[in-house]
Design a protein that fits this description.
This protein has 90 residues and is mainly β. The protein has one domain. Helices cover 8% and strands 16% of the residues. It is built from one helix and four strands. It has one helix at residues 76-82, and strands spanning 40-41, 44-45, 59-63, 66-70. The longest helix is centred in the last third of the chain and has 7 residues, at 76-82.
Length: 90
């Protein structure tokens, strides 16, 4: 298990995971190329509308006190502000 040193510049990501939080381009995320930074609705990225390669995308960080999980829920009002609508289930 990876543990962070509070005095280091570690951002809390487990280094053994690979490029999590990195800037490596990933062809699975064509709109911006950064793995883990997309939000998916109905299996499609809300930025580029491409199908996801993961069932859900969340930002997961290890902290000194445990694990922090961050996610964003997009409402219909947010969608209208973006200029396009995601179809809601009947």
């Amino acid at each position: 298990m990876h543990e962070s040193n509070p005095k280091s510049d570690d951002d809390g990501y487990a280094s053994e995971v690979g490029s999590v939080g990195g800037r490596d381009q990933d062809p699975s995320y064509p709109c911006h190329g950064i793995d883990g930074s997309s939000i998916y609705v109905d299996g499609r990225c809300v930025i580029c509308r491409q199908p996801s390669t993961l069932p859900a995308v969340m930002d997961i960080k290890r902290t000194a006190t445990g694990v922090q999980i961050s996610y964003r829920v997009i409402s219909a009002e947010d969608d209208a502000l973006l200029g396009w609508m995601v179809p809601l289930p009947p």
